[in-house]
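JOB MANIFEST
job_type = single_chain_structure
chain_count = 1
residues = 267
[input]
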Amino acid sequence: MFLSKALKNAISSKQYHKSIINVRRFYKCTPICFQEPDSDYVQNLQWFLEKARRQDKAVETSEEYHQQQDLYSQYAQNYDEMYAKTEYQDALLIYQKAQEWYQGNKNISILDYGCGSGRIASSFAFRGYGHIDGSEPNETFLESAEKTYIFRNLYQVGSFDDHSVIKQKHYDLLISSGCFFISQSHPGYDVFPTLTQLVRKNGYITICTAERYMRFPHVRNGKVKEMERQGKIEILPTMTFPNFREANEWEEDEDMHGIILNFKVIE
C-alpha cells in the first residue's frame, strides 16, 4: 500500500498524550487482518463481568474497571474476529439510523464512543463517511483503532474521565455499540449529561447493547427521563433485534437480543 510522505510523518511523530491521540485520515481505509481469536480470553472477560453482576456484594467499581481493562487488552487484536463469527447486525442498524436522520449526508461529524478497535466506525468509513472521531479508555484498543486510519482524532477517555479534551457541541451523531450498561464500571445513563455536551443541538445519540443488560439492577434511566422533562433531550423509539452475540454456556437460557436506544439532543 502506498503511504504519502505526510502520512508517514504523521505515523512516526504520533504522540500519546494523557487524554488524546490525533490521527488524520489520508486515504480510504482497508480491512484489517486479525489473528484467530483465543476463546479463553473471551470467556474470561465475559465470565468475570457475569460474576461481578451476580454476586450479592458488587465488585468495587475501580477494581472491576482495572481487571476488565487488563482482560480487554489481552484480546484486543481478536475482538472483531470474535464477533464476526456471529450474525452481528449492530453496525448495519446503526448506519441505517444515520441514513434515516441525515438522508445520506456523508459530511456529518461522528463520534464513536467506546470505539474499541474501530469495528463500527469502519462500517461508516467503508460507505464514504470521512469525519469520524473515536473515544476509548483502553490503550491497546486505541492502538488497533489507530491502525485503521479512519479516525481523525482518537481520545483516550473513559466514562468517568474528564471529557473536556473532546470537542464540545461538535458532533452531529454519537454512536456506541457493545460498551453501555454491561457493568457498573461501563458507561450508563449517568454519563448522558456529558454526552449531550459533545453533540450539537438537534444532533443524535444512538446506542446498541444487549437487551438483557437493560434489566440489570445498576441500570436506571431516571437521569435521561429527567433530562427529557427539562427539555434537554428527546427519547426516541427503540428497536430490538436478534443475535446481539452468541450466548455463553451460563447464558443459555438468556435472551441475547440486541436493543438500539435513540435520543435527540434538544439543546
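[summary]
Confidence is low (pLDDT under 50) at residues 1-39.
The longest strand covers residues 199-210.
exit_status = 0
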